[in-house]
Amino acid sequence: MPSTQHHWGTPPWPIRFKPRPSALPASVDFAIVGGGFTGLAAAAWLKRLAPEKSVAVFEAFKVGEGASGRTGGMALAETAAGDMPGLGDVLSGFQKILHTLDVQCDLDLHGAWEIARKDGRNDSPIAWNDSGTLRVMKHVPGGTVDPGKLVAGLGRSAQRLGAKIHEHHRVTHVAWHREPVLTIERTGAATRAAKNGSRPTHKLTAEKVLFATNALSLRVSGLTHGTHARLTLALLTEPVSESVLRAIGLASRTPFYTTDFPYLWGRVRKDRSIVFGAGLVTSSDVGALETVDIAKSEATQIFARLDQRVRALHPALAKVKLVRHWGGPILFRDTWKPVFGWHPHSNAKHRNGLVIGAFAGHGVALSSYFGCWGAEVLLGKRTSPRWAAANATRTPDPEMRHLNKV
């Protein structure tokens, strides 16, 4: 499998961190599957709370190459299902985590706008043409981060505290015993070039496992039922002038997202370029998402519509250059609640497999917040929220039918 950057496009925030190479262990106290926000935050927090324990992170590609490095970087206060019992103050907790782990990621929590085509404020700073007139409804807690700096910062912190991070190592199977046995496959370029096509595997025993792969590796993480893996799309404009930002109502740099359909979200970057996002590319099954090419078929059509929408929002955007397009994986659950609970196949007595994911676009702050919470659960210092159990099922939410509306 080629690097996901080859066919999902390249986001505008580079990840300037490369883990130090290290030999694969035969056993580890805690194995973390997935090197994004959740996995890296959990690894750092585990080593902070239990420095005597061994922690290894296994990432199928490079750290942050999944949802974490491809998100738009909008930090929101709650889950996609809203506030939940015992959730706590996500943004405050996120800030404390970044401070504790010494992560610098251009965090700016000056709030976000909820915008809609109905019930907008009369004093709305924006009035965009998009299947009706989009106006600001209310200002909510939130803000922005630089996703590349967040991934890199969490990675450096985890490594500095003693966690081992193994890029290009995919966990392909877990045998659920008292101590789970992970089968790990090398996915680097040298392996792909092997003449016989086979890839070397490694067996590793772990005391406990945290699955933090979100929309990828759903079969291994046990999330094949009641979830919907998609590729969400975004584009970047050229840097615009301050006068353009004032004309379109974004001079305050407040990020925004719609509360109705067709969906649209966005934010202004430090160089005055603007990110807009909307649209979901379907996949034929849970294993097909990695093969989606944004330069082909369905994705190109969605991008064409998104390009037209952005230029039509306001006359000041009519001739703006669109300089970058990319996609990133996103996972929805029928309940819209995130997953945070024990793996459906893990040992019921020993509780040795924890699954976290399905943030449905609310994962920038929540994923790190849950990663650290998950570390405390694995150490027996805290319990996971009952409403987010991994094996919870229910009738699909009728609102899921809107997922593919651009």
Do you know the CATH architecture?
3-Layer(bba) Sandwich
Average pLDDT reading: 92
Which parts are unreliable, with pLDDT below 50 for 5 consecutive residues or more? 395-406
Query: How many discrete structural domains?
Result: 1
CATH class: Alpha Beta
N-to-C terminal Cα separation, in Å?
A: 29 Å
Helix content: 10-25%
Describe this structure in words.
By secondary structure, this protein is of the alpha/beta class. The protein has a single domain, classed as FAD/NAD(P)-binding domain, CATH 3.50.50.60. The strands form three sheets. Strands 1, 2, 8, 9, 10, 11, 17 and 18 form an eight-stranded mixed β-sheet that branches. An eight-stranded mixed β-sheet has the order 5-6-4-13-14-15-12-16. Helix 4 packs across helix 10. The protein is globular, with a radius of gyration of 21 Å. The two termini are 29 Å apart. The C terminus is likely disordered.
Précis, in short:
This protein is an alpha/beta fold and 406 residues long. 23% of the residues lie in helices and 26% in strands.
Sequence-ordered SSE layout with sheet pairings:
Blueprint lengths: L4 H4 L18 E7 L3 H13 L5 E4 L8 H4 L3 E3 L13 H12 L10 E5 L11 E2 L3 E8 L1 E3 L2 H15 L2 E3 L2 E7 L5 E6 L2 H4 L8 E11 L6 H4 L5 E11 L4 H7 L7 E3 L6 E4 L5 E8 L15 H16 L9 E12 L5 E4 L10 E5 L5 H16 L28
Parallel strand pairs: 1-2, 1-11, 2-8, 4-13, 11-18
Antiparallel strand pairs: 3-7, 4-6, 5-6, 9-10, 10-11, 12-15, 12-16, 13-14, 14-15, 17-18
Helix pairs in contact: 2-5, 2-10, 4-10
